[in-house]
Design brief:
single chain; 363 residues; alpha/beta; Rossmann fold; 2 domains; seven-stranded parallel β-sheet
């Protein structure tokens, strides 16, 4: 029989939603009217999160030090990996993008950024703590990122704790009063698998582990105020820096031979953040204080990465065997057919398995 206009509109909306499943998790502009701040958003995961929040309709402030014409960061300005460009992309995606030049190593600069948001907005709904400084990586002594801690000394410690753990704490302190104005909010700390297993170096792991503890303990004090906080674990991410290393033939040495082509895009973390921001209050409250893997949130909420792909969780055999075990077996001359990489079951190992070291040491 003939369908009513209302039924036809509903059917059309469902079809459109299904066809756009890889780009949206809950329908068009679910975050319209929401105000978000993403720190360290000129490139990488922060940029991906900001753009996806904009695609969901949010008004997004992005912070960082990379500006067009900047003499301090000429390489970033040359490639337009700047907060201005990210803000433009937020607007192009359907949101409202705004940029604030902010040095997250400077508390006064952070306070000024939040003061501007407080002046321009009725409050803040979403904070994504992503800022991370890698400026001095190339200046470290022999061994660089993977050198023993007694070689790296205090420089590595300060680098990952000051703009990272400490700046996350400072931004969270500034954000809470603005979220209280709105009757609640969401804080996402971009953390790392390094918070649960040894990777790179001692200082990095301590910083990321502390970020996860920060998330857990803040959730206790924030619970009465309807503010939820989650630590987010991206997987292997195809950031601009990693892709550049791949182009320059340096990726294998930096990563230990991981297959970057099988990694996630920064948008995947963005879609995970949108999914959390749109989750029902009871569900989000239950997740508050926890660590959440981006790929596992994709399974739970039903969203994909770019290209309608869904990368495996970093603790799944589907990720670990093709990235770590099979390549080593092939180097030893053992017959491991290529098709086996795509046939590994999606079995997730418990976190306790990784306490002893990186996957190649426990395989």
């Amino acid at each position: 029989h003939a369908q009513s206009g209302t039924e036809m509109h509903a059917l059309l909306a469902l079809l459109l939603g299904a066809s756009a499943g890889s780009a949206s998790v809950v329908g068009p502009a679910p975050l319209r009217g929401k105000v978000a701040l993403v720190t360290g958003a000129s490139r990488g995961i922060g940029r991906g999160i900001a753009i996806e929040l904009g695609r969901a309709g949010a008004e997004v402030y992005v912070t960082g030090r990379s500006l067009r014409g900047s003499r301090a960061r000429p390489a970033a300005a040359c490639d337009d990996l700047t907060i201005e460009r990210t803000a433009e992309e937020v607007s192009e995606a359907g949101g409202v993008g705004r940029f604030i030049r902010c040095d997250h190593a400077d508390d006064a600069s952070v306070s000024e950024a939040f003061a501007r948001i407080a002046q321009e907005q009725p409050g803040l709904d979403i904070l994504v703590n992503n800022a991370f400084s890698s400026d001095n990586l190339n200046d470290l002594q022999q061994g660089g990122l993977r050198a023993p801690f007694w070689v790296q000394g205090a420089r590595m410690w300060d680098m990952v704790h000051n703009v990272g753990l400490r700046s996350h704490y400072v931004c969270s302190c500034e954000a809470v009063p603005l979220m209280m104005r709105r009757g609640g909010g969401l804080m996402v700390q971009v953390s790392s698998f390094g918070g649960s297993s040894y990777i790179f170096n001692v200082a990095y792991g301590v910083a990321k582990g502390a970020v996860d503890r920060l998330t857990r303990d803040m959730s206790i004090e924030l619970r009465p105020h309807a503010i939820n906080t989650v630590s987010l674990y991206p997987g292997l991410v195809r950031t601009e820096r990693n892709l550049q290393l791949q182009r320059e033939g340096m990726w294998d040495a930096e990563s230990g031979g991981l297959d970057l082509d099988k990694g996630e895009t920064p948008s995947f973390s963005g879609r995970a953040t949108v999914a959390l921001a749109c989750a029902p209050p009871d569900m989000l409250r239950a997740l508050s204080g926890s660590v959440q893997v981006v790929a596992e949130l994709a399974e739970q909420f039903g969203f994909d990465d770019e290209g309608a792909t869904r990368p495996a969780s970093i603790r799944s055999l589907r990720f670990l065997l093709p990235q770590y075990v099979f390549p080593d077996m092939r180097k030893q001359g053992l017959p491991v057919p290529g098709w086996l990489d795509e046939r590994v079951p999606d079995v997730k190992l418990p976190w306790a398995v990784f306490k002893g070291g990186p996957p190649q040491d426990i395989a």
